[in-house]
Every structure is written in structure tokens, then in C-alpha cells.
Amino acid sequence: MGAGVLGVGKFSPEKVLTNFDLEKMVDTSDEWIRTRTGIEERRIADDDTDTSDMAYYASVNAMKDAGVQAEDLDLILVATVTPDYPFPSVACLIQEKLGAWNAAAMDLSAACAGCMYGMITAKQFIESDTYKNILVVGVEKLSKITNWEDRNTAVLFGDGAGAVVMGPVTDGRGVLSFELGSDGSGAKELFQDEPGIYMNGREVFKFAVRQMGESAVNVVEKAGLTKGDIDHLIPHQANIRIMEASRQRLELPEDRMVKTVQKYGNTSSSTIPIALAEAYEDGRINDDDIVVLVGFGGGLTWGAVTLKWGQ
Ligand code: ACO
Q1: Which atom from ligand 1 is nearest to the alpha carbon of 197?
Q2: 103: alpha, beta or left? (left if phi > 0; alpha if psi -120 to 50)
Q3: Domain ranges (residues) in the chain
Q4: Best mutation site among 17, 36, 142, 190 for ligand 1, i.e. most ligand atoms within 8 A of its Cβ?
Q5: For ligand 1, mutation pick of 139, 147, 205, 269 (most atoms within 8 Å of CB)
Q6: How close is the Cα of 201 to the center of ligand 1, in Å?
Q7: What is the per-residue pLDDT for 274?
Q8: Would the pTM count as exceeding 0.70?
Q9: Where do the DSSP E strands lie in 64-207?
Q10: Number of C-alpha atoms within 13 angstroms, CB side, residue 173?
Q11: Is the distance from the beta carbon of residue 37 to the nearest atom of ligand 1 less than 6 Å?
């Protein structure tokens, strides 16, 4: 028995903040943002919508898609760096909202690679036959930790949530291979402190290009596949130039990479599940397709997963 994705869901707040809006807030331009990052607009949650609300909405959509009821959930894992409170966890807050009373619940912190860490943690519990239905959520309200006066970072981030329900699938489908990694010596390249997010953009860029490419190649090899077998590459949506570098490293045509960065910006741990849900809802992902997910983030952390789609 393998561990795979039973359902996917996403949530994006309604409010759109365009590059032109940002031109009025900091010394920047639509042209600079688009050419350097690929971002055109991002979504911003209102004051009444916190991280757990977005996580809840995405979870409801994923559970509906999976056909899984709240009482059937055994574990809830929420990857976030912007929880409602230091404690209790967002996972406990959504357990209550969902009424998932049979689930254990916890958050995990691996920044933008968080959802990869969550999915691989879920896989271990499923394959060891410990738990059956596991909800994994990537969710961020980055707008609440963004320094809106710092043009270096304010233009990059957005809010949103993506969720997957994972569970047992037919042998040969589901997670075929994975890689997780961390390098704490790079902690100060990307971190949060008052008054916002600090980022050494150039160093993070170099690390991301190198690591995303390497991890993606590694998981494809570990799965016993070749680059040509990849149907969909879903990289962390931080910057189109970093994403393009991974695509080129895998020698994939443009239409094999899922791209949402232009619409949502970098929503950290939620970019990968949002892009996955969007590609699936668009009918682009079919049974037995090979999907490669790859992310990197603050920590520094990284993670990649090869999935064979379907149950
Ligand atoms: N508008 C206009 N100019 C800007 C802006 C802006 N919004 N932001 C920075 N600049 C200026 C800087 O002040 C600097 O000016 P200077 O040269 O006079 O000092 C210049 O632009 C910087 O230019 P570059 O270094 O050439 O910019 P670069 O092409 O590296 O792009 C960027 C910067 C987009 C931040 C890039 O380095 C990058 O994407 N890095 C990775 C970021 C990333 O992926 N972060 C992931 C975060 S994941 C997580 O865990 C939250």
C-alpha cells in the first residue's frame, strides 16, 4: 500500500493588491516587480480573516474533494510561519472549526518548504499503518508580518491556503520518492524579526536555484524515473526566475510547469498546495501522471516529492 493524495483544496482572499497599488505605497514599479519576480498581483486577507480561517476554508474544499468526513481525520498537520497565536496551534484551531474530534493536531515550521515536510510526515504515518486520513495544510497570512515600508520584501508576499488530504492508495501510486533537507547555517539569510521579514535576496536566490534543481533531479532519480517522465513540475512559487531555472534543469517544456506566482505572489508554505489544487481543478492532472513538487524556504529548508497521481 502506498500513501497518496485523496483530495486537494485551496483558498485565496478576495482582496487583490496589484503592482500598481504597491507603486503608491513604496518606491517601486510594476515593471521592476514583473521583470524581477514574475508577480503581477497578490491576495491580502482582511482584518477579520486570520490564518486559521483560511486554513479552514482550504481544508473544507480538500475534504470535499477527497470525500472524507471530519470524524475520519486521524491527524491534522499545518505548515505555517504565521499562526494566529504562538499557541495553541492553527491545527488545533481548525480541528475545532472542522469538528475533527478524532484527530491529533499540530503545526510544523519549515517556512516555504513546510508543506513538503507535512506531506512526508503524513506519508510515514500512513505507510506504517498508524493513521489513515491525514489533512496537511500550508497556510500563511504573510501580510501581518510584512513591513509595508520595505520595498525589498513588501512586493513579494501574499496570503492564502492550500490543503491536501492524504491516505492509503494502490501500490505504485502516491509518493514514489522524496527528499527533505535543512541548513541552519543559512538561518540569517531569511528570517522574521521586528519590523518584518529580513531577506538577503541574492543569497536566497542563489541557494534556491541550486537547491530546487538538485532536489528535483534527485527525487526523479530516486523514483527510478527520467526527466522526460515528468508530466507536471510544481515548484515553490517565490520568483519566476527561480522556477524557470528548475524547469530548465529538468529540461521540461514550459507547459509542464504549473505557474501561479503572477496571481498570488509568494504565499510561503501554501504556494505548492495552491498550485497543485489549481492545476487539478483545471483538469490538467490525471491519474498516473507524474507530479514533482519542490520547495525551499527560510531555515534554510528544502523538500521535494515525486507523486504518481491517483488512488
Ligand atoms: N522596486 C524597485 N527596486 C527595488 C525593489 C523594488 N520593489 N526591491 C529592491 N530594489 C532595488 C534594491 O534596492 C537594489 O538597488 P541597488 O542596486 O541600488 O542597491 C536593487 O533593486 C536590487 O537589484 P538586484 O539585486 O539585481 O535584484 P534581484 O534581481 O536580485 O531581485 C529579488 C531581487 C527579487 C528579491 C531576488 O533576489 C529574489 O527573488 N531573491 C529570492 C527571494 C526569495 O525567493 N525569497 C523566498 C522567500 S521564501 C520564504 O521562506 C518566505
Answers
A1: 51
A2: beta
A3: 2-169, 174-308
A4: 36
A5: 205
A6: 5
A7: 98
A8: yes
A9: 75-79, 104-108, 134-141, 159-169, 174-182, 190-193, 196-199
A10: 15
A11: yes
Is the CB of 177 within 6 Å of ligand 1?
Answer: no
The CA distance from 236 to 292, in Å, is: 11
Could you tell me the pLDDT band of residue 236, with boundaries at 50, 70 and 90?
very high
Check for a shared fold between 2-169 and 174-308.
yes
C-beta of 24 in contact with ligand 1 (< 6 A): no
Among protein residues, the one whose CA lies closest to atom 10 of ligand 1: 152
CATH code of the region 174-308:
3.40.47.10
Q: CB under 8 Å, gap of 24 or more: what pairs does 238-241 form?
A: 238/112, 238/156, 238/208, 238/266, 238/271, 238/296, 239/36, 239/37, 239/38, 239/156, 239/205, 239/208, 239/266, 240/37, 240/38, 240/39, 241/36, 241/37, 241/38, 241/205
Q: Which three cell numbers stand for residue 64?
A: 470535499
Our CA angle for 237, 242, 243, nearest 5°, is 55
Give the pLDDT confidence of 7-61 residue by residue, as tens digits.
Answer: 999 999 999 999 999 999 999 999 999 999 999 999 999 999 999 999 999 999 9
Atom 11 of ligand 1, residue of closest alpha carbon: 152
CB-ligand 1 contact for 200 (6 Å cutoff): no
Active site residues: 112, 236, 266
pLDDT in tens, 69-88: 999 999 999 999 999 999 99
Dist. CA 254 → ligand 1 center (Å): 24
- The arrangement of secondary structure in 2-169, i.e. its CATH architecture, is 3-Layer(aba) Sandwich (3.40)
Give the pLDDT score at 289.
Answer: 98
